[in-house]
Amino acid sequence: MAVYNGPLCRVCRAQGKKLFLKGDRCFTKKCSLERNRGIPGQKQVALHFNKPTDYKIHLMEKQKVKNTYGVLERQFRRYFDLAIRQKEIPTGDKLLEILERRLDNVVFRMGFSTNRRTARQLVSHGHILVNSKKVNIPSYTAKKGDVIEIKESSRQIPSIKTSLDEKSTFPTWLEVNKESFRGEVKAVPSIPELSLDVNPTLIVELYSK
Questions:
Q1: pTM confidence score
Q2: Of 75, 99, 154, 188, whose CB has the highest number of CB atoms within 10 Å?
Q3: Residues 183, 131 share a domain
Q4: Are 191 and 93 in contact (CB under 8 A)?
């Protein structure tokens, strides 16, 4: 099954809440979730949910994280298996850390794109260098010390320049030089600092059932 490439607002409507899949545009523009509270594909139908079951609550939390980072179920399960093998930090936090270190997410966090979908395209189309070498695999796991930059011949792409111009703050685990279109992974991402609207414990409980 391929990654969903349809309208992003439909994903938010299915979840019943904003996932900010379009990046900063979700803060500045009124989305279809706010204009139409109906279920995707069913116009003029209001959302009438009974009290969700525990299973549904756990499942929706997993779907929210999968949709936010744009990964498939098989990929997501593989990340969970990696997270559960380590003992240093809680499994849920490790899962989010692994997802944060995906190259497409790092490109997004560095401000080279306005959202993760566009970041994934930048990586896939060969616009990204890691330690001076082209990497076109969005799932590549960035490590501490990795230098990530826009290929010199791609630095005039309008969307990249616009995105960088609009980006004013960056996570503390990343160091970005906007003038040189380059950034470095300075540390492992701190999950509490990212203020993600996610309860990873629910995901761990779902897979543990």
A1: 0.77
A2: 99
A3: yes
A4: yes
